[in-house]
């Protein structure tokens, strides 16, 4: 538990950061992905679209596969025990119940992609924290957008840039997201045509980690968007510099810092040569960070000191200026130290931070890496060392020194949580998991167990507590978009099914790669002296080792109320073993047949049958999706045409709720259609006078079409 709020915290990120995270005393979970490979790809493809070499080399497919792993890892990080570094640990196999983990709140950054979908599945709060602007505004463009305005209205273009970036992201990853939703989370898919608006439409709260000294809060941002200040991890007090670094700092003029962090370039030697030449032209001494890119090889001049990992909060206090790639963290560290900053952007949000620093007067205009020369870099360094620029940087540092970004973000998150709704009403120190149907009381598992033991409640009196209900599928903005979404959704479902089918064929048990993997795996299984598989013996220890399938079967029986009145000694293992054994028996039978004489034929037949079922299911869902999306389009059209609030449609979660919602929409649609002929002209005439009559008649007339369409199609 971490003070002052006492929460258990798990940081879910790449395996490369495991040691760093755990060194801070925080739990770690690996969500997959290789940040170094991703950085190398981004340097090669700084724009939105990949270049020809990346397409030919299969880099796009590799990155998509990596993103699918990361998105899946976001869900695993919410529910799994352990650190995610090995095979998944089943809940029944943990050493202690303290090792179990189930997220109660998700704090995420937007590019992690799985955030809202995991929050919807678990019905828990979601809070976004990020280091660059991700919410639409007219004040500046999206940090990842490279825009040429031309004659367009800059404010409108800025706002649309945020929408376009989200739309392009969904167009590229929408199939992976929906596959994750349907196959992993068992949720309905969301069309990319409106899925890209989820974050802004749901008004998910944001805490932005930068100082308003650098970027003031835009006037069109609402109260759910907050700027808390830069966040720093103080490491200077625990850092002991090597003697040669101390000697370099003490003997000579104050050096500048040059480092490009995690950036990986194709030709580090050429970059090194250019840096050394720029240092010579500018007539300065420099501390050069090696970083991930291997900068600093070859002969090193006496005016240059090569450094490895070193805390920025220690080093930047001892240099005259900083030169870096424009990462949000390094930019913040440079400003906090009061040092002028030269930004050499490579990709992503780095050009944005270069623009912000130049606009604030704390550095020169940023020059992209692809346009950089030794002369340009030397000129930028000389500009940064001017007294006026240094004075601006120091003034900004004084203001930032009074801020506490991390503390402000933690307070913002805490204040937005309804803590009382999370507490058990009978044992306030415990988390509530159940809702008592009659009284509305929130109860923990401990409280439910006590009340059950005393015969005060039955399981039929309870239902699982949903802390936060996320209604993600409000639907299309118009009937046309709804129809397009239905057709594209059907095509995507067919494409996903076909892709899965071809993947299964490639991963056939009789393929070379699969046989090689199997043989390696078999060599690792230890056996006892009599040749018995040791893992098999461990699996037969007794009822304590309840599998995940056992637990799911038990949950099904609990939900269907077949456990009431059962004897306490009637163990979960005894109850569930026939179900799980039957399922496992079928799997073992399939594997045995697949490894037999005609195993290849059996496997192909089985996966082809699965493919046929997937195609049939997609075809059966297509007309339902068409009517549903078009009806939603009719329902939402008045809001998008006239900016008028419309009645929110109830969520459909099954046949019962679907029939109920259809009935309500039919009645309301007919009523709104004909009442609008009278009410709309009356309202507009009352608000706008005589000239509002025409607008009201137009709204009423169009309302007949929209509301009748919505009502009838339901």
TrEMBL record:
Keywords: Transferase. Gene3D superfamilies: Glycogen Phosphorylase B (3.40.50.2000). Residues 507-518 have a biased composition (Basic residues). Residues 504-539 are annotated as: Disordered. Residues 5-140 form the Glycosyltransferase family 28 N-terminal domain. One of its GO terms (molecular function) is sterol 3-beta-glucosyltransferase activity. Residues 296-387 form the Erythromycin biosynthesis protein CIII-like C-terminal domain. It comes from the Eukaryota. One of its GO terms (biological process) is carbohydrate metabolic process. Pfam families: EryCIII-like_C, Glyco_transf_28. This is Chromosome 2, complete genome. It comes from Gibberella zeae (strain ATCC MYA-4620 / CBS 123657 / FGSC 9075 / NRRL 31084 / PH-1).
């Amino acid at each position: 538990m971490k003070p002052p709020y006492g929460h258990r915290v798990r940081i879910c990120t790449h395996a490369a950061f495991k040691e760093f995270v755990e060194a801070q005393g925080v739990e770690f979970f690996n969500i997959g992905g290789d940040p170094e490979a991703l950085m190398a790809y981004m340097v090669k493809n700084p724009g939105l679209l990949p270049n020809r070499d990346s397409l030919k080399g299969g880099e796009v497919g590799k990155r998509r596969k990596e993103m699918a792993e990361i998105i899946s890892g976001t869900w695993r990080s919410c529910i799994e025990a352990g650190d995610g570094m090995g095979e998944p640990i089943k809940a029944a196999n943990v050493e202690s119940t303290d090792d179990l983990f189930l997220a109660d709140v998700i704090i995420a950054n937007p590019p992690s992609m799985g955030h809202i979908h995991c929050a919807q599945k678990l019905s828990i709060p979601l809070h976004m924290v990020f280091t660059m602007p991700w919410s639409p505004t007219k004040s500046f463009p999206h940090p990842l957008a490279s825009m040429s305005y031309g004659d367009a209205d800059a404010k409108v273009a800025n706002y649309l840039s945020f929408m376009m970036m989200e739309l392009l992201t969904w167009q590229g990853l929408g199939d992976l997201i929906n596959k994750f939703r349907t196959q992993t989370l068992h949720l309905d898919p969301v069309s990319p045509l409106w899925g890209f608006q989820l974050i802004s439409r749901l008004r998910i709260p944001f805490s932005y980690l930068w100082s308003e000294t650098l970027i003031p809060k835009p006037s069109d941002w609402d109260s759910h968007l907050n700027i808390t200040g830069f966040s720093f991890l103080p490491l200077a007090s625990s850092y002991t510099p090597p003697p040669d670094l101390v000697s370099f700092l003490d003997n000579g003029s104050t050096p500048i810092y040059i480092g490009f962090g995690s950036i990986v370039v194709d030709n580090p030697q050429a970059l090194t040569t250019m840096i050394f030449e720029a240092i010579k032209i500018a007539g300065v001494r420099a501390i050069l960070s090696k970083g991930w890119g291997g900068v600093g090889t070859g002969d090193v001049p006496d005016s240059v000191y090569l450094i490895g990992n070193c805390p920025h909060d220690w080093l930047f206090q001892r240099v005259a200026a900083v030169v870096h790639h424009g990462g949000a963290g390094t930019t913040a560290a440079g400003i906090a130290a009061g040092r002028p900053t030269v930004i050499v952007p490579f990709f992503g949000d780095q050009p944005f931070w270069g623009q912000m620093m130049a606009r604030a007067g704390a550095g020169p205009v940023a020059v992209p890496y692809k346009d950089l020369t030794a002369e340009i870099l030397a000129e930028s360094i000389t500009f940064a060392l001017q007294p006026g620029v240094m004075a601006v940087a120091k003034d900004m540092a004084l203001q930032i020194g009074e801020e506490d970004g991390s503390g402000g973000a933690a307070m913002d998150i805490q204040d937005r949580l309804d803590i009382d709704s999370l507490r058990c009403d009978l044992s306030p120190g415990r988390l509530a998991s159940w809702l008592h149907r009659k009284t509305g009381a929130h109860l923990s598992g401990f409280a439910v167990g006590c009340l059950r033991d005393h015969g005060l409640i039955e399981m039929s009196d309870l239902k699982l507590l949903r802390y936060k209900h996320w209604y993600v599928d409000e639907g299309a903005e118009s009937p046309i978009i709804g129809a397009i979404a239905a057709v594209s959704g059907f095509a995507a479902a067919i494409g996903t099914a076909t892709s899965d089918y071809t993947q299964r064929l490639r991963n056939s048990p009789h393929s070379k790669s699969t046989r090689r993997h199997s043989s390696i795996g078999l060599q690792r299984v230890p056996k006892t002296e009599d040749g018995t598989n040791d893992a098999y013996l461990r699996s037969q220890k007794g009822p304590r080792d309840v599998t995940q399938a056992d637990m799911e079967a038990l949950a099904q029986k609990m939900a269907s109320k077949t456990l009431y009145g059962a004897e306490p000694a009637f163990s979960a293992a005894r109850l569930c073993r026939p179900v799980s054994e039957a399922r496992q028996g079928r799997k073992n039978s399939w594997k045995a047949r697949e490894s037999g004489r005609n195993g290849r034929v059996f496997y192909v037949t089985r996966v082809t049958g699965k493919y046929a079922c997937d195609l049939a299911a997609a075809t059966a869902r297509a007309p339902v999706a068409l009517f549903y999306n078009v009806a939603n389009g009719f329902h939402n059209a008045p809001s998008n045409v006239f900016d008028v609030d419309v009645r929110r449609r109830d969520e459909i979660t099954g046949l019962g709720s679907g029939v109920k919602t259809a009935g309500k929409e039919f009645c309301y649609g007919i009523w709104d259609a004909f009442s609008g002929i009278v009410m709309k002209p009356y309202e507009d005439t009352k608000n706008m006078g005589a000239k509002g009559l025409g607008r009201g008649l137009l709204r009423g007339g169009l309302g007949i079409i929209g509301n009748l369409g919505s009502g009838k199609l339901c």
